[in-house]
C-alpha cells in the first residue's frame, strides 16, 4: 500500500493526502494500522482528530484499540475511553486525540503526522489547512496530513484540493478491506457478501446510495437533474474553425471524433452580487447540444456583459439568438451594443437579436426548461446524450470571490447541488427547486426552453465564412471592437495552461 511505501521512501511522501471511497472499504482501519506501524519504527507524535469528540470516541478509538490489542499498556492504564486523551506507544512515540470542536487542546502542540477522520463532515477548509502549522516536530521520516472520507457533495473543498494537486488522492474500494474480500481467492468473503447485500437493500435510491455504495460525488437528496453524470456529460473537447466551418473535436487515443456544429444559441442569467452567467450552446447535425463557452462572474454591470457578448459573437458568428433573463434594461443594452458592432449584419431586425426567454412552465408543471434539460441528459437510441458541457470552456478565468466563498464558479459545479425545496403541506412533492447557486442552471434552462419552442423553419442554414476574417457577416468588427473599448474586459487566452486544466474540474 502507498502509505507503507512512503515509510520506506520518505522522499516520495506528499505533505497532504486524502483517501476517499465507499463505505466498508476499510480506510479507517488501514490508517490506524499504519499509524501503529509508524509508531513502532519512529518516536513520532501523531494526532488523530475528528469533527467532534463524541464521534471520535465512538468510531476511531474502538478501531485503533482493536489494532493495539487488549493487552496494550495504554489500554490497561489509560483510563476509560471517553476520558482518554491519547496513547503512549513506547520508545517515545505517542498518539494524541483531538476534535475540531475543541481545537485549542491540540493546536499549540507539534506533530509529525495528523490524521483527520471522516473529512466529509467538515466544511471548514481553513481549519483543515491549519493542521499544516502543527506539522513541525521532525521526529519521523516526514510530515504528513492525512484524511479519509466518503464521496460527498461535489463542491466539498476536499475534492478541489485533490483536483488542484494540493492533496495527493487515494481512492478506496471495498476490495481493499480484507474482512470483506479475500485476495488469495479473489472473491468476497461471506461477511463481504452480506455487507454489500445489506447496503443494496437499504439504499435503493438517492444520494446515500450514490455516495456510500456507488462511490459517486453527488449533491444533496432531491437533486433536480438526477440523470446528470459528470463522467458522461462533462467532456474534453475543443472547437475548431476549418475553412469557415465549425467543428467539435473530441480527442481519442485511436483518432479524434469530429462533429460539425451547425447551430449556435446564447443564454444569459443576470446577476451582480450573485453571479451572472453567459453561455454559448452549439448543436451538431444530430441535435446534440454542447456548452462551448461560459462566462461566470460577479459584479459585472450591463455594459461589461454586453462587451463580453460582443466578443462571444465574434468567436461564434453563427449565433442565431441570445435569450436572457427578465431584465429589459439588459436586453436593451445588449441589443444596442451589438447593433453598433454589427452595422452590416443582415439579420432583421438586429435590435431584437437578444430576447427575454419564455418562463411558462413545462408540460409536467416544472419550471420552464427543466423538462427539456432532463430529457436531453438521458441516453438516446445511439447511446449518446443530447446535452454536454465542454470541460474548460470557462472564459475570463475563475471568479476568485466565488472561489474563496466556496461557491460554484461554473455551471458543472452547480448541477449536483440544485435540489428541490422540501414540500409544503398540501403541495405536491418536487415542485420548486431551491433558489441557491442555480445561476448557470437557469441560463441552461433558458437556452433549452428556446430550443424547445423554436420551429424547425426558424433554424438557419449555416453559411460558410472566410476563415481569414474574424466575422465576414460583420465587416470591420475588429476595428469597431477597439473603438468600443473592449480592452476593459480581459482578453481570453492569456491564461496559463494549468489554469485551463483547473477550470476544467
Overview of this protein structure:
The C terminus is likely disordered. The strands form 3 sheets. Strands 10, 11, 12, 13, 14, 15, 16, 17 and 18 form a 9-stranded mixed beta sheet that branches. The protein has a 7-stranded mixed beta sheet with strand order 3-4-2-5-6-1-7, sandwiched between helices. A two-stranded antiparallel sheet has the order 8-9. It is of the alpha/beta class and 505 residues long. Helix 2 packs across helix 4. Helix content is 31%, strand content 19%. The longest helix is centred in the N-terminal third of the chain and has 15 residues. The chain has 2 domains: 186 residues, Rossmann fold (3-Layer(aba) Sandwich); 259 residues, Nucleotidyltransferase, domain 5 (2-Layer Sandwich). Strand 14 and strand 15 form a beta hairpin.
SSE layout and pairings?
Elements: H1 2-8, E1 16-20, H2 27-41, E2 45-50, H3 53-58, H4 60-68, H5 73-77, E3 86-90, E4 93-99, E5 113-116, H6 125-134, E6 144-149, H7 157-163, E7 168-171, E8 181-182, E9 187-188, H8 190-202, H9 206-213, H10 230-233, E10 234-235, E11 238-242, E12 245-250, E13 257-269, E14 276-284, E15 289-297, H11 302-315, E16 319-324, H12 328-341, E17 354-356, H13 370-377, E18 387-390, H14 400-404, H15 411-414, H16 439-453, H17 477-483, H18 497-504
Parallel strand pairs: 1-6, 1-7, 2-4, 2-5, 5-6, 10-18, 13-16, 15-18, 16-17
Antiparallel strand pairs: 3-4, 8-9, 11-12, 12-13, 13-14, 14-15
Helix pairs in contact: 2-4, 11-12
